[in-house]
Write a structure and sequence with these properties.
The complex is a heterodimer of chains A (about 375) and B (about 190). Chain A has helices at about 1-35, 65-75, 85-100, 115, 120-130, 145-165, 170-200, 205-210, 225, 230-240, 255, 265-290, 315-345, 350-385; strands at about 50, 55, 110, 135, 215, 220, 305, 310-315. With about 375 residues, chain A is mostly helical. The longest helix of chain A is centred in the N-terminal third of the chain and has 36 residues, at about 1-35. Chain A starts with a helix and ends with a helix. The radius of gyration of chain B is 29 Å and the shape is elongated. In chain B, about 20% of the residues lie in helices and about 10% in strands. Chain B has five helices and five strands. Chain B has helices at about 20, 25-45, 90-95, 135, 165-170; strands spanning about 75, 100-105, 115-125, 145, 160. Classes of the chains: A mainly alpha (about 375), B alpha+beta (about 190). Chains A and B meet through helix 1 of A and helix 2 of B.
Chain lengths: ~375, ~190
């Protein structure tokens, strides 16, 4: 019992630490990548000076995220004259916390067996016995449903923020955000149903495990090869969910100042920004889990590599755990980078185009994809049965 | 009251898109490959130790390709013996639209040809508009502007005052166009 608590505590600390680090670093990555993409140098002035010396750690401006955070924390927490103080104070948290909660069901590694990992020390081996823990904060059977349930809450937060700010821009932003998120949530849900049909489960852990096989003899059995179309649609809808350019209508700077968080300042505004950046990481993690084989390298499972020829390479438990943690981080980071690439490449939609794109283009495509998947699954499984 | 239904206006230069372009996805991929290609190219340059940007790292680096007639920093020209050629006539300070030149004249009885010279000659670059009027106004060709920009960025506003010796010694230049009589020595000789 105590052992479970310890392990889960470590998982939670790891997950929160990882998400916060991603949130901090992505603010810098976004600026730096945008700069490199447009032949500029980018943010590189913030530095840490080691006390009592003149040694300045610049590290390519990596501390800009830290400087931003400090600035947000130290600024005046300005409050507008609003008629709903509770909703105003609640808004940022309702946006921020579901984003973190979503990560609870995303597996960031395979199964951890502490007794095998620390087989050098008898005390640990004895204490843990033969317990094993999937590297996932909550290994729920309803994994994917939880993801959608929590990410749906975010829209309430932006509505609360927009409504209680007593500002027309905020109000417009909130309305736009609500209609946009609801539209794209439908698309996102439909694209994922195809995957659920193929894997026969909504548990993200088991979805990842099923992706370590081989498809057609040479491809890794990743979701993106089963459902390439769904992957594109999912990525599009997820970007729209996150309200980033090309779908940043709720916070379109040139039209709405900052949208639903116009009236927020200091760390409350910082929470909205932070939630957005963490959501980039969450979307990347979800996409990795659903379409890119999760924490595994191609053909890799908890035991080792099973190469397409049937050749098996066993790996020790410590190597597997480390590889899986690292591979997950790398995949998530690359996908974050891809989202930033999209954000700095495409122009913003007009609002009517945005909704038309969701309902008249993405939704039929998602439905068509689903129908094809259903027929294919029925034909293949039906033939087998 | 009946209103006509809204009809979207068709412009003569309406953009026409082919089916592939209307399909959107492929065009997006094309755009992403362009921006991604630029990113990878620049990133490759940075990683291999070259410079992957067009911008300079000001003020540590400045561009070397300023135009020859760029109005950058002021310099004071010198006589052959190193004194400023300026005769403290105050013409530049008078014409300066930003009123950023301050001159304090001093009297040098030993040099009858040019008894007046500046003991202080200061330019406040926080106000200077780099118009070049001072250069135009100078009757002695004593103040010029060179193409290099002044090294201004600093945490202190006072650092933006450039003083006589800065302007003389930063990029010393003597006026070769005119020859000046040498300063008389103690015996009063040397006058033409």
């Amino acid at each position: 019992m105590m052992q479970d608590l310890v392990i889960r505590g470590i998982y939670i600390a790891y997950a929160i630490g990882m998400l916060m680090t991603f949130g901090l670093i992505l603010t810098w990555v976004e600026r730096k990548q945008a700069a490199v993409m447009s032949d500029r140098i980018g943010a590189n002035r913030a530095y840490l000076r080691i006390p009592f010396t003149q040694i300045k750690l610049v590290w390519w401006g990596l501390f800009h995220g830290l400087a931003d955070g400090m600035k947000m924390l130290l600024k005046e927490d300005f409050r507008p004259v609003s008629y709903d103080r509770v909703a105003y104070a609640l808004g940022p948290w309702v946006v921020f916390s579901p984003v973190l909660l979503v990560f609870a069901v995303i597996p960031f590694g395979g199964t951890l067996v502490p007794a095998v990992l620390f087989d050098g020390s008898p005390a640990i081996v004895e204490w843990f016995g033969d317990r094993s823990y999937p590297m996932q904060i909550a290994s729920l059977d309803a994994g994917l449903l939880v993801v959608f349930a929590f990410s749906g809450i975010t829209v309430i937060g932006s509505m609360l923020a927009g409504w209680s700010s007593n500002n027309k821009f905020s109000m417009l932003g909130a309305i736009r955000s609500a209609s946009q998120m609801i539209s794209y949530e439908v698309v996102m849900g439909l694209t994922v149903i195809g995957l659920i049909l193929i894997y026969g489960s909504v548990d993200l852990g088991s979805i990842v495990e099923q992706q370590s096989g081989v498809l057609l003899g040479f491809l890794p059995a990743w979701g993106i090869f089963y459902q390439p179309f769904a992957a594109i649609l999912f990525m599009t809808a997820a970007q729209a969910e996150n309200r980033r350019i090309p779908f940043d209508l709720p916070e379109a700077e040139s039209e709405l100042i900052a949208g639903y968080f116009t009236e927020y300042s200091a760390m409350k505004m910082g929470l909205f920004m932070f939630a957005e950046f963490i959501e980039i990481a969450i979307i990347a993690a979800l996409f990795t889990t659903l379409f890119l084989g999760g924490y595994n390298l191609p053909f890799m499972s908890d035991a080792g590599f099973t190469l397409p020829g049937g050749h098996f390479i066993a790996l020790s438990h410590g190597t597997v755990v480390l590889t899986q943690l690292l591979v997950f981080l790398v995949k998530v980071f690359l996908l974050c980078s891809f989202q930033i690439l999209v954000r700095w490449s495409l122009p913003r939609f007009r609002y009517d185009q945005l909704l038309r794109f969701a309902w008249k283009f993405l939704l039929p495509l998602a439905l068509a994809n689903l129908v094809v998947t259903v027929v294919a699954v029925w034909a293949i499984r039906g033939a087998g049965a | 009251m009946s209103r006509k239904p809204y009809q979207r206006r068709v412009y003569w230069n309406e953009s026409t898109m082919s089916w592939w372009e209307r399909f959107y996805l492929l065009e997006i991929l094309r755009g992403l490959s362009i921006t991604g290609g630029v990113f990878l190219r620049n990133m490759g340059r940075w990683i291999t130790g070259r410079k992957g940007a067009l911008t300079t790292y000001y003020p540590e680096q400045t561009r070397s390709d300023y135009a020859a007639h760029n109005r950058g920093k002021h310099i004071l020209t010198q006589r052959p013996d190193g004194r400023p050629q300026c005769i403290a006539c105050n013409m530049c300070a008078t014409v300066c639209p930003a009123q950023c030149i301050e001159i304090e004249a001093a009297f040098d009885p030993d040099d009858p040809a040019h008894p007046k010279h500046p003991s202080r000659f200061e330019i406040d670059y926080s106000r200077c508009v780099f118009c070049g009027f001072c250069v135009e106004a100078c009757p002695e060709d004593a103040i010029r502007m060179v193409k290099e920009v002044p090294d201004l960025p600093s945490g202190d506003r006072d650092d933006m005052w450039f003083r006589r010796d800065d302007l003389l010694g930063w990029m010393p230049r003597s006026d070769v166009a005119k020859s000046y009589p040498p300063k008389p020595d103690a015996t009063g000789g040397g006058r033409p």
